Amino acid sequence: MYSCVRTVSLCGLMGREIRAEADVSEGLPVFEMVGFLGGEVKEARERVKTALKNSGIVLPPKRITVNLSPADIKKSGTSYDLAVAVSLMKVLGIIPKEAADGMVVIGELGLSGEVLRVNGVLPMIIEAKGMGITSCMVPSGNVSEALAVEGMEVFGVSSIAEVRGFFNEGNDGGNYSTMRDTDGSFDIRQYDVDFSEVNGQESCKRAMEIAAAGMHNILLIGPPGSGKTMLAKRLPTILPELDDSERMEVTKIYSVAGMLKEGQGLIHTRPFVAPHHTVSSAAMAGGGAIPRPGECSLAHRGVLFLDELPEFSRNTLEILRQPMEDKEVTIARAAASYTYPASFLLCAAMNPCKCGYYPDRTKCRCTDMDVQKYLGRISGPMLDRIDICVEASRIEYSDIRNREKNESSEDIRLRVESAVFVQQERFRGTSIRFNSEIGVRDIDRYCRLGREEERMMREAFDMLGLSARAYHRLIRVARTIADLDGKKDIGCDHLSEAIAFRNIDRRYWNG
Fold first, then answer.
1. Which of 163, 97, 109, 113 shows the shortest CA–CA distance to 136?
2. Reported pTM
3. Other CB atoms closer than 10 Å to residue 8's CB: what's the count?
4. At residue 510, what are phi and psi to the nearest 5 degrees?
């Protein structure tokens, strides 16, 4: 006797259809699983057998063979358990032979027969929909993320007993297909911080606004206590709202990483990821025997904040160079290559020297050699990928005691969203979302300069010793400043401000 149940295997964020085939025949009693199985999948044999037994289903003393097809794909994870159990129940006649036809089945089993949550359900269901499948059975704890996929009928189960009852008697209570996640609003009040709490540092606030409007990488340099971390933590509060496709992208990554809470649907706020400076290269880019998303992928469509930038290892920082250009990370393994998106806004903060007070020689005791050695931890190619470099100066007493009402995050975000709307109209019909993503071939099309602007850029190029990459990044920043100013063309004042935010790195790195 033979039966088959469909499920899904994940490779990164991409899925492949897997068929859990079961056959029961006469012969020596044995339960064998085949199909290029990883260690945790091989262990599914004992989990499934014990879960069925504790649910009142005893396997007969016959030759039982389970195959996860196709056999050329390495199977890993625990999400195949429920599909194997349903396939066995079909072949044994516990449930109807046509049960689960046209449905994907996903879930892990506990020894008691409980159906447990698994990671990556959202991309699995998206893949199933692409196969033309319109219904799925998932653990009750994964129902919310499965419901994020429109047009998919979702059935949540919590035990083998529920699965058996559903297929034999029908279970309308398990049909959650009408409970769609419709709350897509962005509510700035969900944040515990706000720019209104920041006194002083007007140039840094302006730089943050420009960075948020064009998704430009930004570096804050200043002495301890000047508010660099405080500013960075408030950057997400002024970022534009995630659109529908971005919500789905972010939620897929967090689903695969196992970082969605039970009952959580789509993620509506842009991520803010702040790894400690001791983070390893593998943790930053992603890795492991079965590579998981790293910190830079978890920051996709949001902010990756690196505090105390020079304290990160050189290898860890250099790993970010490729994602900052290509907006994705590819991790190669012998069995397969895994690609995760990594389009993030890099916000970094650092002291200007080891003691933190350079160039204030009344406090700084570092020699010129010490300063250059400290700054030299940031490589030229890495610095080249920073769009905006701004100095956070020492806070004065008058700033601390200022009782005037500061501009709120919502006020700034309204200007940012207006500039983003201009970009959406400009790039309609293309793959570009923000000014920071304008390719070299499109610079002249979207960032035309007049005669005076060309002359200014030529002088800046020579004076600052810009590379071609830094030149193009400066032009993109000027384009964003013009959008915030409501101007169609880039003017000399826009270029002047962009150059000022680029000139600060020359002050420190070139003395």
1. 163
2. 0.90
3. 25
4. -110, 10
Among 286, 271, 273, 283, smallest CA distance to 313 is for: 283
| Domain positions in the chain | 2-174, 188-509
Assign 495 to helix, strand or coil: helix
Burial annotation 175-195 (CB, 10 A radius, 16+ → b, else e) = ebbeeeeeeeeeeeeeeeebb
**Local structure of residue 53 (DSSP, 8 states):** H
**Cα 448 to Cα 442: distance, rounded to the nearest angstrom:** 10
- Per the CB < 8 A criterion, the answer to whether 271 and 303 are in contact is yes
Q: Which residue from 203, 148, 155 is spatially nearest to 180, judged by alpha carbons?
A: 148
Nearest Cα neighbor of 288 from 314, 256, 312, 242 is 256
Contact 70, 37 (CB under 8 A): no
The confidence band for 337, taking pLDDT boundaries of 50, 70 and 90, is confident
DSSP at 334: S
Q: Does domain 188-509 have CATH number 3.30.360.10?
A: no
CB-CB contact of 340 with 307 (8 Å): no
Please state the length of the chain.
511
Q: How far apart are CA 353 and CA 366, in angstroms?
A: 7
Q: Phi and psi dihedrals of 405, rounded to 5?
A: -75, 120
Instruction: For 156-214, write each residue's pLDDT tens digit.
Output: 999 999 999 999 986 544 444 444 444 443 333 478 899 999 998 999 999 999 999 99
pLDDT at 182: 42
Q: What token pair was written down for 98?
A: 């046509």
C-beta separation of 267 from 247 below 8 A: yes
pLDDT digits (tens, 9 = 90+) for 102-139: 999 999 999 999 999 999 999 999 999 999 999 999 99
Q: Residue written as tokens 């720019």?
A: 195
- What is the Cα–Cα distance from 211 to 294, expressed in whole angstroms? 23
443 phi, psi to nearest 5 deg: -55, -50
E strand intervals along 325-473: 328-332, 337-341, 345-350, 388-391
Question: Tokens 């201009």, residue?
Answer: 422
22-65 residue pLDDT tens: 999 999 999 999 999 999 999 999 999 999 999 999 999 999 99
How far apart CA 416 and CA 238 sit, in angstroms, is 7
Domain 2-174 has CATH 3.40.50.300: no
